[in-house]
Amino acid sequence: MDSVVAIWMLLLIAGVISLIGLAMPPDVRRPNEISAWLAGNARRKRDRARRRAAEAKESIRYAEEIAVAARGAASTAERRRVECQAAQARVDETWRAYQDADAALTRARRAAVYASLESIDYPERARALSRAVQAAHRRGDLSDAQLLDALAHRNGWNPGLHPVEQELVLARATVQHRLAAYQRAVDAEADAWQASDIATAAVHSLRQELAEAADRADVAHAKLPPKERASSARRRVTAHA
């Protein structure tokens, strides 16, 4: 019985040796050559394992960077949406102000037709103009430049006019200022929507890239040795955030 087992062991060893011989290159036959080949083969396997580990870590790192970028893009897109809402509200506000100014201009025109012809001296007319334009500026009906023009009596601002006529000039200037403000608000709203569209597109693109990068990171993570896999588990979770 013992001899049978010994024979089987010898056959098994011979088979293993034969397989090793077949696996080795044809020019490797001597013991020292076999030892060198085995050592080189082990070294090549270690190098491949290190490369795979480095590639896996790089995939995980890239996925995490894309996740951070995607979160930042989402925050930016949210800010852009808030800015769009504010810009739209500003358009509505400036349009109402323009309509009010236009209605006031209509009333001023009607009043100018029936303006009283009683004598009002020049100093009083100048003071009336100054009071009116400063009050209009505080209401936001005149720009800084228009106020300076009025106080300097230039660009159509004439302190010698009757107060009713001055009110007509003021109403026209107010309409001009409010219309310009409305047009600027419309332009700002268009810019805000364009910025919002760009930010939204960036979010979609980064989320798609994140999904692909996370999938690659999962595959790479699964190829890591157990110790490396455990140390990188936290980063892998972050990459999916």
Write up what this structure looks like.
There is one protein chain. With 241 residues, this protein is an all-alpha fold. The chain has one domain (64-239). The chain has 7 helices and no strands. It is rod-shaped. The two termini are 65 Å apart. The model is unreliable at 236-241 (pLDDT under 50).
Task: Kindly summarize this structure in a few lines.
This protein is an all-alpha fold and 241 residues long.
Q: How many separate structural domains?
A: 1
- Would you tell me the structural class of the helices and strands? mainly alpha
Distance between the termini: 65 Å
The tally of helices reads 7
- Largest sheet descriptor: none
As a percent range, the share of strand residues is under 5%
Count all strands and give the number. 0
Q: What best-fitting shape do the alpha-carbon axes yield?
A: rod-shaped
Q: Which spans have pLDDT < 50 for at least 5 consecutive residues?
A: 236-241
Mean pLDDT: 79
Order of helices and strands: HHHHHHH
